[in-house]
Amino acid sequence: MSELILHHYPTSLFAEKARLLLGFKGLSWRSVNISPVMPKPDLTALTGGYRKTPVLQIGADIYCDTALIARRLEQEKALPAFFPEGQEMISAAFAAWADSVVFQHAVSLVFQPESIAVRFAKMPPEAIKAFVADRAGLFSGGSATRLSAEQARHQWPTIMGRLEQQLQREQGDFLFGDPSIADFALAHCLWFLKATPVTAPLVDAYPAVSAWLGRVMGFGHGAFSDMTSEEALEVARNATPAALPDERFDEPNGFEAGQQVVIAATDYGVDPVAGELLFAGREELILRREDERGGVVHVHFPRFGFRIEKR
Ligand SMILES: N[C@@H](CCC(=O)N[C@@H](CS)C(=O)NCC(=O)O)C(=O)O
């Protein structure tokens, strides 16, 4: 069986979400450290252009976006579940809200000038400049707009006040009783705020939220060991992609298997990935592409939040 390989870097919020997902499931995995800024030649050799962090690789199958990574890990090990029975919609909907709305607040608060000065204190000015330019590129061309620090500060007490209220009354230790994807999608945003002294009080001021965050972080990251990006490319090259899912589906826009298409995120990091559409299911799209270094790979995307276009 192929190993789970996570392409990520330590300070990425969504990578922290993926690490916690792996920890919650008690899975063992390999860790490939990637650059936080473009270019990422070894990663894009696998994804075909998708640049966001993290990416999960299993042999010659490449999974983009933590929303889909969670579903893939659920297939790997059904229990404990990210999408508990009877909470399939509410857990996924809350997670999508946290991954976009709470994420935007966290990023805006951590990147406000007072906080940047502390967080990037040890980074040379050219590196800060390159990082800012990279992130401007990341956010161009998509539907996501950046939230001003003022608006993020303004709305933060509403988000945290509601959470504090719910968690004080909660019948159980997690957002919806048992742990679910909702907890992980919220936790990585608060973890990011806690990692900078200027923004940590924005979480610490809420005791029930802090106690809950401690419980979620307590799942840890599972057992992992390092792998180089060259080794990961070799794994892909030597592997055969997994069989396609056994799901019949009528594609609402008439796309068919075998068509040459491009798939891209709609919000930000909208770099298109070109290839042959192999599968379009309710949750997942699969593209076949061939790479000089990675060989034949199947790149998987969530349907929600991604678009398909004919080439
Ligand atoms: N919807 C994506 C969001 C991923 C995302 O925004 N990741 C950030 C890092 S936290 C990113 O890609 N930043 C730019 C980069 O790493 O190149 C997911 O769930 O995986």
Automatic annotation (TrEMBL):
Q: Which GO terms describe its molecular function?
A: transferase activity
Tell me which Pfam families the record gives.
GST_C_2 (PF13410), GST_N_3 (PF13417)
Residue span, GST N-terminal domain:
2-81
Which InterPro entries does the entry mention? Glutathione-S-Trfase_C_sf, Glutathione_S-Trfase_N, Thioredoxin-like_sf
The record's CDD domains line, in alphabetical order, gives:
GST_C_family (cd00299), GST_N_family (cd00570)
User: Please, which domain of life does this record's source organism belong to?
Assistant: Bacteria
Keyword list, A-Z: Transferase
Query: Under what name is this protein listed?
Result: Glutathione S-transferase
- Protein's organism: Pseudomonas migulae
Q: What is the lineage of its organism?
A: Bacteria, Pseudomonadati, Pseudomonadota, Gammaproteobacteria, Pseudomonadales
